[in-house]
Amino acid sequence: AETNRQPRQQQLQLPPSMPILGDFELEMAFPQDVLGSIVYASQAISRERGINFDATGFEPDNIDLPGVTICPKHLKEAVSNLLDNAIKYAPLRRKGKVGRPRIPQIKVTLTSNEPPLSPGATLYVEDNGPGIPASERDSVFERGYRGEAVRGDADVAGSGLGLAIAREMISMVGTIDVLDAREGPNKLDGTTVRVILFRDRE
User: Fold this and answer.
1) Collapsing DSSP states into helix, strand and coil, what is residue 107?
2) What backbone phi and psi angles, to 5 degrees, belong to 134?
3) What is the pLDDT of residues 112-152, one digit of tens each?
4) CA 78 to CA 80: how far, in whole Å?
5) pLDDT averaged over the chain?
6) Are 166 and 78 in contact (CB under 8 A)?
7) Is the backbone of residue 166 left (phi > 0), alpha (psi -120 to 50) or beta?
8) Whole-angstrom Cα distance, residue 123 to residue 79?
9) What tens digit of pLDDT does each residue of 24-47 get?
10) Which of 101, 118, 92, 104 has the alpha carbon at shortest distance from 173?
11) What is the b/e burial string over 89-120, where b = at least 16 CB atoms within 10 angstroms of the residue's CB?
């Protein structure tokens, strides 16, 4: 096991100091080490609520993922918001959609960036809830915005801040966007959020 872990440690050799941006203290870390605990905690919560939650790529000995330059504290808070949203919305149906009962699903995938992206890691958070229409995919990152699918629904609590906060935190070290429901690796018919992180900060 030690021979497999050695390359991971070598990847984390850093310059004498990393930049500090406001209260964002950046460091090189492996994303599965930073995010594994919150992903598995969300998995346990989801299963208690009858949600099928699968996580891929978060194994501590996953040597295929490079280290990335991040602020661990803020990345964990941002991804926690994404997971909370998925847990909240996965059980909901798209307005006007009827049919036989379905099992709510969440799939979280962590994988290496693919060319032409610079080296790093990509996180996908997918669910099979009501989804976000293409016309709202920019607006959902605005503070206080709530999507049409849940707007005015008293049964769905929320402040419209989760995605806005996530974008503010992630934009310092990478990118975040909402994809078409069928563009994620698992192609669930709901919301797919993608976060891209990089080994080297440009």
Assistant:
1) strand
2) -55, -35
3) 999 999 999 999 999 999 988 898 988 888 876 665 555 44
4) 5
5) 83
6) yes
7) alpha
8) 9
9) 789 999 999 999 999 999 999 999
10) 118
11) bbbbeeeeeeeeeeebbbbbbbeebeeeeeeb
